[in-house]
Design goal:
Blueprint: E1 2-9, E2 12-18, H1 26-33, E3 44-50, E4 56-62, E5 67-68, H2 72-86, E6 90-94, E7 100-108, E8 111-117, E9 122-130, E10 134-142, E11 146-151, H3 164-172, E12 182-190, E13 193-200, E14 204-206, H4 210-224, E15 229-234, E16 237-242, E17 251-271, E18 274-278
Parallel strand pairs: 2-3, 4-6, 11-12, 13-15
Antiparallel strand pairs: 1-2, 1-17, 3-4, 4-5, 6-7, 7-8, 8-17, 9-10, 10-11, 12-13, 13-14, 15-16, 16-17, 17-18
Length: 280
């Protein structure tokens, strides 16, 4: 049996599994367990490793089985679980995209308000050429993982005659990005507030994204002259970032809620050559 925890941050949901239980089948487990209609359902799985020196390390696998550098929301979900299960109010979590330090600053029931240090965003204005669409102006942003940010005017967040979901899919899988990219569609509403939609690499449209929030706000600050503290509203709710200067660490504050704990049972069916997992 495999124990799991489910948590979400503004509707962006994750399963948390002990790395030792993965048995090398990370991708297969993610594909199976994240299925919305036949299993638990999630945008991805955070595999949590407790190293002998006391440090924590995360590996993130998206719902399609691909591995990503990190997730701001997923990292925050793990921090919430460690606060819930072990009483940790501050924790450093290693990821492929670097160490992310999280601090609990509030709690209501199983929902935690957490501030995370998200590294120093790298923002560069760039226009890309998408077949069938043409030139698309935006910004490439790295916050430990890759993003392409578009500034849009339409209320429905569409651009270039396409819905944001359609254009997001084209950009996310463009060969211009060797490892794919997350895509954000941003409306600057005022000097202190933006709204955005996210097409997430390896998952598709999601209700929220921690790194997407950081990418969207850093691009707004660096290229659109907004305030250095911004409220960013996604479909799943609002998060807040603070970025004092372009060479400073960005801080992200948002909620994370523990949803449930459960067990998965091994069966003999195979997924991608690995033991499959189903829930009873």
């Amino acid at each position: 049996m495999i124990d799991f925890v489910k948590a979400h941050a503004c509707g962006n949901d994750f399963l948390i599994l002990d790395e030792a239980l993965a048995g090398g089948a990370h991708a297969a487990l993610a594909q199976r367990l994240c299925s919305r209609n036949t299993s638990v359902g999630a945008d991805g799985i955070e595999f949590l490793e407790r190293r002998s020196n006391g440090e924590f390390y995360l590996r993130l696998f998206n719902a399609d089985g691909s591995e990503a550098e990190l997730s701001g929301n997923g990292t925050r979900c793990v921090a919430a679980w460690l606060a819930e299960s072990e009483g940790l109010k501050q924790v450093a979590l290693g990821t492929l995209g670097g160490v992310r330090s999280c601090r609990v600053i509030g709690r209501e029931g199983a929902s935690y308000l957490i501030e995370s240090e998200m590294g120093v965003p790298q923002v560069e204005a760039r226009t890309i050429e998408i077949p069938g669409v043409g030139a698309v102006a935006g910004a490439v942003v790295n916050v430990g993982n890759p993003h392409f940010v578009l500034f849009v005017e339409r209320e429905d967040f569409g651009a270039h005659g396409l819905s944001w979901q359609e254009l997001g899919a084209k950009i996310a899988t463009s060969p211009l990005f060797a490892h794919g990219t997350n895509v954000e569609f941003v409306q600057v509403r005022s000097a202190t507030e933006i709204a955005f939609r996210i097409y997430e690499r390896g998952c598709g449209p999601t209700t929220s994204s921690g790194t997407g929030t950081c990418a969207s706000t850093s691009a707004s600050m660096a290229l659109r002259g907004t305030a250095r503290e911004l409220k960013a509203i996604a479909e799943g709710g609002a998060q807040r970032t603070v970025w004092p200067t372009n060479d400073a660490v960005m801080r992200l504050t948002g909620p994370a809620e523990i949803v449930c704990q459960g067990k998965a049972f091994q069966v003999n069916a195979a997924v991608a050559g690995k033991p499959a997992v189903v829930l009873f």
